[in-house]
Amino acid sequence: MRGDNFRVLFVDMPISIKGFVGYDPADDYYTIYINSRHSQSQWLITYFHELKHIENGDFLNKGLNVGYLELIAH
């Protein structure tokens, strides 16, 4: 992971969603989406959680569903 290939956006989402990562393979660029409704402390937890998915290369594990990736990531 390079420091210049991701950005963070704060977005109004349903309260049940903490955040997620989007990936554009054409540009090798990630966007971390964080729920703006949550507290600042939750923002940090979510940020580091999503960053870990990028560092682990979870988006390169094609064919694995999100639930399974969450299970093996923790």
Entry keywords:
single chain, 3-stranded mixed beta sheet, alpha+beta, 3 strands, 74 residues, 2 helices
Describe the protein in words:
The protein has 74 residues and is an alpha+beta fold. 32% of the residues lie in helices and 26% in strands. It is built from 2 helices and 3 strands. It has helices at 40-55, 66-73; strands spanning 6-11, 19-24, 29-35. The longest helix has 16 residues, at 40-55.
Describe, in short, the structure shown.
The chain is of the alpha+beta class. It is about 30% helix and about 25% strand.
Structural topology:
Blueprint lengths: L5 E6 L7 E6 L4 E7 L4 H16 L10 H8 L1
Parallel strand pairs: 1-3
Antiparallel strand pairs: 2-3
Q: State Rg.
A: 12 Å
> What structural category arises from helix and sheet content?
alpha+beta
The counted number of beta strands is: 3
- What order do the strands of the largest sheet run in, or round the barrel if closed? 1-3-2
The level of helicity is: 25-40%
Largest sheet: 3 strands, mixed
Low-confidence stretches are none
**SSE order:** EEEHH
